[in-house]
Amino acid sequence: MIPEDLKYTRDHEWVKMEGGEAVIGITEHAQKELGDITFVELPETGADVSKGDGFATIESVKAASDVYAPVSGKVSAVNEELESSPELINRYPYGQGWICKINVDGDPGAEGLMDAEAYAQFLEENEQ
Amino acid sequence: MELIFEKSRDGRHGVKLPDKDVPAEGRVPARLRREKDAELPSVSEPEVVRHFTNLSKMNFGVDSNFYPLGSCTMKYNPKFTEKIASSEHFADLHPLQPQLIMGGMLTQGALEIISNLEKLLCEITGMDVFTTHPMAGAHGELTGVMLMAAYHRHKGNAKKFILIPDSGHGTNPASAAIAGYRIKTVSSDSNGVMDLEEFRRKIDDEVAGVMLTCPNTLGVFNPHISEICDLTHEAGGLMYYDGANLNAIMGKVRPGDLGFDIVHLNLHKTFATPHGGGGPGAGPVGVKEYLEPFMPVSRVVRRKDGTFALDYDKPLSVGYISPFYGNFSVLVKAYAYIMLLGKEGLVEASENAVLNANYLKEKLKKDYEIPYDSNCLHEFVVSAAKQAEKGVKALDIAKALINEGIHPPTVYFPLIVKEAMMIEPTETESRETLDSFVDIMKNIARMAERDPGKFADFPANMPVKRPDEVKAARDMDLAFTGTEKGAGG
Amino acid sequence: MSYIPHSQKDREEMLREIGISSGNMDELFKGIPEDLRARSFSIPSGRSEYEVMEHLKELADRNTTGLVNFVGGGFYDHYIPAAVDALVSRSEFYTAYTPYQPEASQGTLQAIYEYQSCICRLTGMDVSNASLYDGGTALYEAAMLAIRATGRNKIIMDGGVNPIYRKMMYSYTSNLNIEFVDIPVTRDRDYREKIYAHLDAETAAVILQNPNFFGTIDDHTDISEKCHEKGALVISSVYPISLGILKTPREMDVDITTGEGQSLGIPLSFGGPYLGFMAAKKELARKMPGRIVGATRDAEGRRGFVLTLQTREQHIRREKASSNICSNEALCALRALIYMSLIGKEGLKKVARLCLDKTEYARERISGIRDVEVKKEWPTFNEFVVKLPRNPNEVIGKLINKGIAAGFPLGRYYSSMEDYLLIAVTEKRTKRDIAIFSDALEAALWS
After folding, report:
1. Of A22, B49, B93, B202, which has the fewest CB atoms closer than 10 Å, so is most exposed?
2. How close does chain A come to B26, measured CA to CA in Å?
C-alpha cells in the first residue's frame, strides 16, 4: 500500500527522485485525513524553495494544510490538472495526484527522509 | 425556492418614484456611462414582500427556536429597544452633522447616549475609558491590538509576539496577526485553562501582550489569572480581555479588577442586541487610564457648560478605526437594555445564565462525555466521542437537533475537544425549554446506541438536507448569472 | 426580571438539582476566588420599560433631524421604501446568528447569495462577499487582499479617495510593513502623472474612487492599463447609486471594487451600522476576506446554499486567515438586497437620473450667485464643490437656523480648501428645496 520506490517525510509528503528532479505529492494517509480536497494552491514554476518551506496549500471544506518542501531546489513543473480536478489527489495520491517537480541542483538535502518501511512504522507509532 | 431574479419580469417595479421636477438635465458623456443596465430584478412590491417573508420562514431565530450556540450568547432580544432605535431622531441623523458649525448642538442627545454608555461599560468592566467605535467583536480585538502597538511604539518597546491559549476564539490570532504581530500559542492544562508552566516558559520581553477569554470557551474561569497578569506586566506586556463571555460574570468579576489592560465587549451578545443573521454587532473597547491617549478619534467630551462635543485632537491616537462613532443604533439598543436591567438585572442575567448552563451540564453528563467537568460558568463543552464510536458524530447530532426544531450548539469548537459541542443556553430560556432539550439529547444518545444509521436521514423536515459543501467549494457558484428558472446552482 | 422566565421556585429546584441546597445563586460562582471578585458595581437600578422609553425619547428629541439635507460626503439621504423596514423587522431574520447550519438558515443564505448576485450585477464584477463593516474598512481589506495576491507591499492611494477612508487606511497600516504613497489632492487631471511617478514593480495596488470625494466622475480604464502593465492591481471605491448610470468598475478593468452601501436602503443612523461591500474578479475569490455564500445541491438534488471557501476564515485558518472578520453587517446587506429588489433595474436608473438632474439644477442656481465659483469642467454625479467668497462656516450656521444643512466645509479635511463647500443633492430634494437653499445661500452671503 505504501509504494516502495518513494521517500517520505514526517509531514506526509512523498518524494520520487528522477535524476536531478524530485516529484512531490502527499501520501494516502494525508489525503484521507484531509477528506475531500476542494482546492490546491500550487507554487509558481521557477520559484526557489528550501527544504521545510510551506510551498503549496491543500484545502478541504474545513481545513487547509501546508505542503512542506522535502528537498531544496527550483520548481520546474506543477500539476496544472489539480486546478480543475483537485480530487485527483484523493483518488491517485501517488500517481495523477502529484503536486509539483523540483529541480534539485547539488545536494537535494534528502537526508532524514524515510523509506517505505520506516514511514509505515512512523504511521503505526502515530496511531498509538 | 426560486431566486428573486427568477421572479423578475421586465416592466415590473416595486417602488413608485417621484417624477422629475427640475428644468435641468445633468449630462454624462458616453465614455463615462455603463454600456448595459445593471440587471437588478424587476419585481412588484407584493412579490418582493412575499419572497422575503417566505425566505424568513426558512430560518431559525431566537424568537422561534431554542438556540444554544456556544460563545454566541443567543439571548432574547427585547422589542422595545428596536422601537427606540428606529426613532427618526436617531435613524435620520447625518453623522457629519456634528462636524458642521453649530451642528454639534443639534446632536446632543446622540452624543450623550455615547457618553453615558461609555461610563456604564467602564463600571461594568472595571475599566477607565471606553470607545464605542469598533463595529464588531473582532474589530474590537483589532482595535485593542492596535492600541497595544501604539503604546509599545510610544514607549520604544520592541515587541514581536502575542500569546494566545489554544482554546481561544479564532479571531484572537487573526486580529493579532493583521495588526502586525506573530502568534505564540499556549496549550491548555488538564483543567482546560491555559497551562501555567508553559505560559511561564513563553512569556518574555518580546511579548507585546496576552489575549484571553475568561471564563474561557470551555466555560472555565482561570484560577491563575492574577499570576498571569502579574507575569505579563513584569515582562512589559499588556493583558487583553476578549469579552465574548462577559455574560457569565456581570457584577461578579470585572476584567479591570483582575488586572486586564484592554477589553472588548460584544454588545450583540451580552447586551441583547440582535445578531441580524451575522451582524451588525458592536465591539466597544475599554482601557485603563494610561492607554487613554492612544484611543481612536473622535472622543466624546463634556464641556464645562454640560454640553457634549467631539474631540479629534489626540496626537498619540491610533487614529480613525471607524468612519464615525461606531454602530450607533446598536449602541442605542444596548444602552436601553442596560438602563432597563440596571444593577440587579445585570447580576440576575449572569446568575441565571450560569444556573441554566450548570443545570444542562448536570442533566447531560450521564449520556455525553464532559471532558473538563469542573464548575462551568455560562457555557460548557460536551464531547460526542462516545457516540462517534458508533459512527454518530457531533455534526450528525447537530442535524438531529435541527430536525427537532432546535438550533445546534457550536460544533467542533474549541479545537482542543474531540467531537466538541459547545452549549450556551443563556438566561432567557425557561426550565421547560431546557428540560425538553435534555429529553431530546437523551433520545439522540439512545438512538446513537441503537440505530446509528438513522442519522443520515436528518434533518428530514427542512428545505434542504446536508447540502454538498465540497461541490460548493469546488464549483464556486457565488452569484447568479442566469435569468430563468433552473439556471445557476 | 421579565426576560428571565424562572420563578423563585424554579430557581431553587434547579439549584438543588446541581447540588446547591442553600438557594443562594452566588454559590454558582464559588470557583472564583474571593479576592478576584468585583470591587465595585455601581450601576443605577433598573427602570421600567416605559421609563426607559421616556428617557430615550427625551434624548432623541435633543437631536435635530428635520433639516433639509445637502450634506453628503459619502453618506447620503436617499429615500427608503417602507417595505424595507417591514421585511427586515421579521425576527426570523434579525434574531438569527451567522448561518453556520445551512439547513436551519436557508433564508439568510439565499438572501446573501441574492445580495452577492446584485452587487456583481451592479459593479460588473464576478464575485462579491457577504459584507464588511463599512466602506472604509472594505477599502482597507481590499488593499490587504491586493498585498496577498501580488506578494508586494506598496499601496498608492489617490487624493480623490474619501478623506475619512484615507485616515482609516493610515490607522490600519501604521504597524505593518507597507509602503504607503498618498497622492496629494489636485482638482485636475494631473493626478494620473503623480500616480504613474510612483507606480513600479513593487506596487501591489492603486486605490481610486469614482465619483471621487469631490463628486467628479472619471474613466479610469487608462490607469488600470498602466497598473496591469506593472503587475499591480486596481482598487476602486464606488457609490452604488451612481452605477445606475456610470461606467462600472469592471468596464474600467478594475480588479477589486468596494464601497459604502448605506445609500441602498440603510438609514444614516449617526454613522452606523452601515454596509461595506466588496466585489472582485473571479481569480481573487479564494483570497477575499469575509463570509461568502455559494450555491450547491443537497442530498436529494435540491438547490441549496452554504457558507463556502471557509478555509480563508479565522475560525479555521486562525493567524493565517485572510481577515479577522467574524460578525459582518448581514442585516444591512439584507436591507440593500430588499432595496435593490424593490427599486429594480429601471428604478435604479431613475434614481440615478433624478440625482444627476437635480444636482445640475442646484449647480445652475448656485453658480448664479455673485462671487460663488462652481467648477464646471469636469462632470459630476450628485455632489459638487463650490468656492464661496469667504469661509463657509458662517453661512452654514445661518442656514442651519433656517432648517437647511448647506453642505460640508472642505476645510475640515483640507487646509488648502478653507473656502470650499461640498454640496450633495439626492432624489429627495425637490425643486423647491433647491430654490429655497439657493436663495438662502445668496441671502446669507450678501444681505
Report:
1. B202
2. 48
Q: What is the DSSP string of C57-79?
A: HHHHTTB----EE---TT-----
Instruction: Report if residue B190 sits inside a domain.
Output: yes
Residue A64 and residue C286: Cβ atoms within 8 Å? no
| pTM recorded for the entire structure | 0.97
The answer for B 4-23 residues in CB contact with C (under 8 A) is: 4-5, 8, 12-15, 17-18, 20-23
Q: Same domain, yes or no, for B222 and B248?
A: yes
Q: Å from C333 to nearest chain A CA?
A: 25
Task: Indicate whether B274 and B138 sit together in one domain.
Answer: yes
Domains of chain C: 68-77+345-446 (3.90.1150.10), 82-339 (3.40.640.10)
Contacts of C259 (CB under 8 A, 6+ apart): C135, C138, C237, C238, C239, C240, C276, C277
Residue range(s) defining the domain that contains residue B363: 350-471
- Report d(CA C299, CA C304) in Å as an integer: 10
Are B359 and B326 within one domain? no
Residue B169 and residue B258 share a domain: yes
Q: What ipTM, to 2 d.p.? A: 0.97
* B328-364 and C49-60 helices, crossing angle to 10°: 150
In a domain, B66, yes or no: no
Domain coordinates in residue numbering, chain A: 7-127
Residue with cell 442656514: C399
B29 touching C (Cβ < 8 Å): yes
**Closest partner residue to C176 among B102, B180, B272, by Cβ?**
B180
- Cβ contacts below 8 Å, chain A against chain C, sum to 16
Cis-peptide, bond into residue B46, ω within 30° of zero: no
| Same domain as B360, residue B322 | no
Cβ-proximal residues to C230 (8 Å cutoff; 6+ apart), any chain: C199, C200, C201, C203
- Cα C85 to chain centroid distance, Å, stands at 18
Selection from C283, C213, C279 nearest residue C249 by Cα? C279
Chain B / chain C CB contacts < 8 angstroms: 721
Q: Whole-angstrom Cα distance, residue A3 to residue B320?
A: 58
* Residue B142: all three cell numbers together: 483589532
CB-nearest partner of B74 from C97, C128, C304: C97
Q: Do B363 and B456 belong together in one domain?
A: yes
What would be the CATH architecture of the domain defined by A7-127? Beta Barrel (2.40)
Tens-of-pLDDT digits for all 489 residues of chain B?
999 999 999 999 999 999 999 999 999 999 999 999 999 999 999 999 999 999 999 999 999 999 999 999 999 999 999 999 999 999 999 999 999 988 889 999 999 999 999 999 999 999 999 999 999 999 999 999 999 999 999 999 999 999 999 999 999 999 999 999 999 999 999 888 999 999 999 999 999 999 999 999 888 999 999 999 999 999 999 999 999 999 999 999 999 999 999 999 999 999 999 999 999 999 999 999 999 999 999 999 999 999 999 999 999 999 999 999 999 999 999 999 999 999 999 999 999 999 999 999 999 999 999 998 878 999 999 999 999 999 999 999 999 999 999 999 999 988 889 999 999 999 999 999 999 999 999 999 999 999 999 999 999 999 999 999 999 999 999 999 987 544 443
Distance CA B166, CA B216 (A): 10
Element (DSSP H or E) covering residue C278: strand C276-280
Count of domains for chain B = 3
